[in-house]
Amino acid sequence: MALLEVNNLEVCFGLRKGEVKALRNIDFKIERGERIGIVGESGAGKSVLGFSIINLISQPGYVSQGEVMFEGQNLAKMNHQQLRSIRGNRISMIFQDPMMTLNPVLTIGDQMVECLMEHRTISKQDARNIAVQKLQQVYIPSPETRLDQYPHELSGGMRQRVVIAIGLLMDPDIIIADEPTTALDVTIQAEIMELMLELCERNNVALILITHDLGVVSQVTQRTFVMYAGRIIEQGPTKEIINDAQHPYTQGLINALPQMGVRGKRLHQIRGAMPSLQSVPVGCAFRERCDYAIENCSHNVPDFTESGGCKVACHMVAELKREEQAVKLEIK
Ligand code: SF4
Ligand code: MG
Fold first, then answer.
1. Is this complex's ipTM strictly greater than 0.90?
2. Which residues contact 39 (CB under 8 A, 6 or more apart)?
3. β-bridge partners, 227
4. What is the pLDDT of residues 220-242, one digit of tens each?
5. 304 C-alpha to center of ligand 2: Å?
6. What angle do CA 21, 24, 29 make, to 5 degrees?
7. What's one GO-annotated cellular component (predicted)?
8. CB-defined site of ligand 1, < 6 Å
9. Is the CB of residue 142 less than 8 Å from the CB of residue 104?
10. What is the spatial distance between Cα 229 and Cα 196, in angstroms, rounded to a whole number?
11. What does the DSSP 8-state code read for residue 252?
């Protein structure tokens, strides 16, 4: 049994104008210690997915279909009390903005101790000792002193380290990290991602990394899921996705990445914008931005096709693959 299994998950928002489907047909599994990336532009539904895994979508959002199985239990059907034993404990979440996790009026130590004592029966002193240990794990210098400081007394990078330490506090099985480094300077971003990778590996923690940044995904994850307008449109080993993306949208994302060491190369932005979830077109949601669209794309949502170790939801995947091979042969 997989550690976490999301089956045919659908999430709706009941708005005044009518129902909006924010997520459709989401299926994936994650094994213990595995690291996966969920990638896409903002508005693709990545964060909604992160929240719905731990049943944290707030009204008017709700899970309208499907299940989220964690060790055989459906999180989507759990009540508040049952969820409390899992959230922050077995599954923890790290957000882009450290201040979403940190309470500005409590010291770092008080927050960590409070969190530990809420989930475990331990003394204040033992909780404090664990807090020190966790701060050491995220390489915070003089952790005892830090415990008595308030969040605003730390730099952005330090604050995010504290958030990671809090995420690890209960020795979770899974960490869901939503754009954990987006608010930080580039150099600190890389350090924090390296740290997360190290900690997940060392503690055998599974990671669901939600990001718009394919560079970050390639640094940290083993498998990648690309989302577009509320659906997963391509999935496979991260290496394959980065080196040989097959869905025209994923290809577009990769072509828009600045290449290390290549100066002056024009970046190709994908034309147009992702449709809002309230007006996702019939058929393939990407078709208005796609150079390969055919008649069928306007009528039918593409199913997944297995191709080169990946699964790709595109009607043209076989043609595109043939074309790519023909080009490769020509170059030879
Ligand atoms: Fe483009 Fe059609 Fe493939 Fe969608 S299904 S990505 S519109 S070719
Ligand atoms: Mg988001």
1. yes
2. 46, 211, 212, 213, 214, 217, 224, 225, 226, 227, 253
3. 232
4. 999 999 999 999 999 999 999 99
5. 25
6. 145
7. plasma membrane
8. 248, 284, 286-287, 290, 292-293, 297, 302, 314-316
9. no
10. 28
11. H
- Supply the pLDDT for residue 331: 72
pTM of the model: 0.94
pLDDT tens-digit map of 48-63: 999 999 999 988 999 9
Closest atom of ligand 1 to 315 CA is 5
Domain 4-90+170-259+275-331 has CATH 1.20.1740.10: no
Contacts 24+ apart (CB under 8 A), 289-296: 289/249, 289/252, 290/248, 290/249, 291/248, 292/248, 292/316, 292/319, 292/320
Q: Counting atoms of ligand 1 from 1, which one is nearest the CA of 297? A: 2
High-pLDDT (> 90) share of the chain, %:
77
- Which ligand lies nearest the alpha carbon of 248? 1
- How far is residue 50's CA from residue 45's CA, in Å, rounded to a whole number? 9
- What is the pLDDT, as a whole number, of residue 17? 83
Residue 41 Cα to ligand 1 midpoint, Å, equals 17
Sequence-distant (≥ 6) Cβ neighbours of residue 23 within 8 angstroms: 9, 10, 11, 45, 48, 49, 52, 230, 231
Looking at residue 171, what DSSP letter applies?
Answer: -
**CB-CB neighbours of 232 under 10 Å:** 24
Question: Highest mean pLDDT range out of 71-75, 222-226, 260-264?
Answer: 222-226
Report whether pLDDT(192) > 80. Answer: yes
